[in-house]
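The instructor's notes for this session suggest beginning with a concrete chain rather than abstract definitions. Hand out the sequence below and ask the class to guess, before any prediction is shown, which regions might be ordered.
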Amino acid sequence: MPPLPDAPTCFELLARMALIRRFEEEAGRQYQRAKAGGFLHLAIGEEATIVGTTSVMRSDDYLIGTYRTHGHAIARGTDPRRIMAELFGRVDGTSGGRGGSMHIFDAERRFMGGYGIVGGNLPLAAGLALSSQYRGEDTVTVCMFGDGASNTGNFGETMNLAALWKLPVLFLVENNLYGMGTAVERHSAQTDLSQKAEGYGIPGRRVDGMDVIAVREGVAAGLRTAREAQRPTLLEAFTYRFRGHSAADPEVYRKREEVEEWREKDPIENFARRCVGEGVLGEREVREARELAEQEVAAAVEFAEASPEPPLDTMYENLYAFTDYPGGWYAVDERSPEPHRGEQEAEMPARARELAEAGAAYAEIEDDGPRPNPALQGDPVEGHARSEEAEEALNASEPGAVGEDA
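After discussion, reveal the predicted structure:
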């Protein structure tokens, strides 16, 4: 077992984990009160993996996660009040109330966000690491993702580029044993996820994700490799979420006994007991850490409640495509050789109108019975008479007359 660091470090680790736990509990409660909307993914039980990782990162390193990232932002130093305000959809949130739970972001602290697409953060992490390399900086990117993301195409492509370009990045799999509701042995042929990048030349190792000190040591080694050797590594942290995949998860895929067994490995309780048992911290410091967490979360809720909602007339601000020039297309109509804006159907090109009218006329063919199975009876059009209007429209829109060789 790795030795404990000094008392101030242990207190900070404990206090940060306690804050994340209390924040997540309160976020779940506010979600039930309908104060927080959208989706909500809690990381209760995974605090040691989060805090152990961020505690050894430099302030100028980059961190990027997926959609279970309230704790990641808190661990990087983002004000819990702003995170709670974001969950509430208020203007003082980290993204002005527009991102919600799944898209927490804090560029100032180089937390480059959570992303709702499974595995979507992997290539972005490679891009961040490439930018560090390109600028000659010794900053490292830490990319944290779930076990399910290791099965996506983005995973293989990113591992290949990271190894090929020797990028300064640490990939960390938060393996909580379930990809949504599917056990890891049912969704991954290789259940030792630390080996899944070795074919690309990226070494991997496993750590106990319920032990904050073990995570610290594993991540610190990976950061050194990235920073000094300019080489990516893959770290698999075994952890467990005590709550469902999301707030709407009925958890029918795992037994209560399994959850209770993992609760015995609670990363906060076990770390507190160890600190007290080895004389590094006293019971008073443990209580203080919990009380501070309680106070900060209460203040976060009060702040979020007081923060105003974004005015309705700001709804279209900061949209990528909502501009006068060059003018983004909300939809594309490709029913003609000249694609046009889907929202400007009334101004479609003449050729598009002809083809649209031909299709509409064809759709008016009267149905004189069940359509034949084309696999058994040939072209389903055979035996169905077209109206004169449909015949004329189709003849006008085809290169050659219907029924003739072109």
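Then share the key points. The CA atoms of residues 15 and 289 lie 5 Å apart. Residues 380-386, 399-406 have pLDDT under 50 and may be disordered.
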